Amino acid sequence: MANKEIPYKIYLEESEMPRQWYNVRADMKNKPAPLLNPATLQPMTFEELRPVFCDELVKQELNDTDAYIDIPEEIRKFYKMYRPSPLVRAYCLEEKLQTPAKIYYKFEGNNTSGSHKLNSAIAQAYYAKQQGLKGVTTETGAGQWGTALSMACSYFGLDCQVYMVKVSYEQKPFRREVMRTYGAKVTPSPSEFTEVGRKILMEHPGTSGSLGCAISEAVEAATKQEGYRYVLGSVLSQVLLHQTIIGLETKTALDKYDIVPDIIIGCAGGGSNLGGLISPFVGEVLRGEKDYKFIAVEPASCPSLTRGKYVYDFCDTGKVCPLAKMYTLGSGFIPSANHAGGLRYHGMSSILSQLYDDGYIEARSVEQTAVFEAAEQFARVEGILPAPESSHAIRVAIDEAMKCKETGEEKTIVFGLTGTGYFDMVAYEKFHNGEMKDYIPTDADLQAGFDGIPRFPGNNI
Amino acid sequence: MANKEIPYKIYLEESEMPRQWYNVRADMKNKPAPLLNPATLQPMTFEELRPVFCDELVKQELNDTDAYIDIPEEIRKFYKMYRPSPLVRAYCLEEKLQTPAKIYYKFEGNNTSGSHKLNSAIAQAYYAKQQGLKGVTTETGAGQWGTALSMACSYFGLDCQVYMVKVSYEQKPFRREVMRTYGAKVTPSPSEFTEVGRKILMEHPGTSGSLGCAISEAVEAATKQEGYRYVLGSVLSQVLLHQTIIGLETKTALDKYDIVPDIIIGCAGGGSNLGGLISPFVGEVLRGEKDYKFIAVEPASCPSLTRGKYVYDFCDTGKVCPLAKMYTLGSGFIPSANHAGGLRYHGMSSILSQLYDDGYIEARSVEQTAVFEAAEQFARVEGILPAPESSHAIRVAIDEAMKCKETGEEKTIVFGLTGTGYFDMVAYEKFHNGEMKDYIPTDADLQAGFDGIPRFPGNNI
């Protein structure tokens, strides 16, 4: 079996697709810190969370004991429309790099949302439908999550209201149009439709919006409309749970060919892709069965793991959400305007934050010109135009493969290729024209992100 | 076997991928008419064609006797990067339509060119490389072919010069940027770089260009540079040959599950997708082994099969190319400016023209608002945002499935989903805003396309 020829693309059979998501919290000795009610500083209860999230999703959010959670049949049916996603052996990239390393990537871009986001969007839409809701609200930055949710809601006949960061709304009209194709209502944020939006507009009249601000508006819109709930595309533990479909498929595909990875790499914004990819492998490490090296890759311009603090912080600008303990740059942090890709959230999934704090995960930050160099190199030999976010993982995968070339080690590298860059051509154009700049925040820039955050118990900022 | 459960997506194993292309001309009793030299009106010879096309491709163009042609190993290697493409059972669409029909589509959009065009691009680039050429020239309209060729040339280290119809160059900067990612040089056409371009610019100073004009420029550029040849993305018999990979994979996948199609549908512009999809099935009909219904779908605004004439015509505006006998609207025909999608070429592959004339293929023309309605309906249930071109086939597939609903027939419908619509959001936006109009050319409009075409022997126009 070990000598079985590895095809370019490993596709699982439908019958091999996972029937359960894996909840890594069940195997963590140090559980992620609970969400806190900012008024009482006590852990959020089911009753406190259910006005915002669907009941079943609240249960998943609070569940840190069940290792496996069944994937409902309706969701599995939808998954079959675009999954299993291929695990690709990057033969052409290996040849180009002349490395003895074996490189694999799990490609999540073969669906119209253009990314892995659809894996959780369909789950969240399903539970909303099951609860008899009319619709859901959400925010979107670059637009991948908004597109994914639009697709999922359209499938289940749910109303979908998307608050899109104003600068993206204006610069990415095509993303907006894809969402409209799926029947979503897209509103530029901040807007006049919410109290928090009006307040932000009054305080910062010319603002082009931010993710934290759009979250506040979407949450308010959900709680003020009968039959609506709020849904989120990353950070939350429920989202990481749904995204484990990525890692579970990857593991099944690797096992099928007796491939044992040495290094597993993913880009990290809010953490949903990385968490989904590595969870099943982290579980093996936590249970003492295996050992792998995990690398989280983040932009140097938004370095929450490598330069943030592990404290309780607000998840949104308007401070309407619960507090989460996470590696954070402070909820007031906004990455430099010349940062091109996504991965611009100030915080990080509480699961990944705890695993990182416990030393299970490494983190690296990379600058964007180096990221686009890797993206272009990859596109030219592997035939896929990668999203800027995904290209962070490509950068480090290539770096690790080049180390193998120096040392002669035949390491097996697996990375997550989360999506495609079709809607990111403005950034590619800047790169081609030599107009892309790197920017590393100063310590003072980072400190500014924490201004206005109260000193919660245990926080040291 | 007949009761075997059909998965949502049928993927072939690498070992099941075709090793030979199928040359349907070998099985045609009435061969397609040969290309003629416009000066002598004699069939073009190998020696006359080789200054324009690579030697091996000229051989393929002229070969109407060998039924199977080996796919070189290097091309098969590249195919493995993005093929086999899935044959998808449209379970969700069937359910939505409540039809007893069984609908399948062969999806060619899962590669960065966004379409089937890559299947021939990589073959043409390979033969150019093999011949020791420096590079190739071509034209592109909507940009799918240009993107595909850029990818192929980048893989083999060939220079790639693309003449892009000026209106597309300006309206689709993102397509241009994808080509630049792959290192192609993209020039808006008509340009000052060629004699024919300068002539057209002098005669029509404000022109926004046309495909026929860009072809003329690309051919001139190829013949005037040492070590260059011209390549084309459709119409030619060599292109249809390479595209038979689509139909051969489709047939293998169907056979694997004992599925026998009743109707096979494809959109038709120059004919490469339709020809590639149906060739192996047409072969069975020609050999008297089977019977299928084939439907070519074309835009009502560019109806070469349904309203054109079967005559010898120029392939390009500048009249630098050989004459081809084909269903044509006249080389002077340019579709109305409000026509949104591709499929705007004035002529049709000589292979398909002959098959159509012999009654093996039906043709239908559809209006673009009906096409976009089908596109949106499909996107919402099948999760893929289709290209406008491909949506012509979707329209007729849905129409046929609805007929089955009326009659209760459980027909099996297979259609070609050639690509994705990520770069066509301007058209989708028009559709969403109710600004899309239909346009059917008058008989006088059509007659105008033939003005200036000499009366070649046998032509009756």
Individual helix count of chain A:
18
CATH architecture of the largest domain in chain A, by name, is 3-Layer(aba) Sandwich
Largest sheet of chain A: 7 strands, mixed
Mean pLDDT of chain A: 94
Shape summary of chain A: globular
The biggest chain-chain interface is: A-B, 43 and 43 residues
Helical fraction of chain A equals 40-55%
Topology of this structure?
The structure is a homodimer of 461-residue chains.
Chain A: E1 9-10, E2 20-22, H1 46-49, H2 55-62, E3 68-70, H3 73-82, E4 87-89, H4 91-97, E5 102-107, H5 118-130, E6 135-140, H6 144-156, E7 159-165, H7 166-171, H8 173-181, E8 185-189, H9 195-203, H10 211-224, E9 228-230, H11 237-256, E10 263-267, H12 272-286, E11 293-299, H13 304-307, E12 309-314, E13 323-328, H14 350-357, E14 361-366, H15 368-382, H16 388-407, E15 412-417, H17 425-432, H18 443-448
Parallel strand pairs in A: 5-15, 6-7, 6-9, 7-8, 10-11, 10-15, 11-14
Antiparallel strand pairs in A: 1-4, 2-3, 4-5, 12-13
Helix pairs in contact in A: 3-5, 4-15, 5-6, 6-8, 9-10, 11-12, 15-16
GO cellular component, one term (chains A, B): cytoplasm
Pathway (chains A, B): Amino-acid biosynthesis; L-tryptophan biosynthesis; L-tryptophan from chorismate: step 5/5
Family (chains A, B): Belongs to the TrpB family.
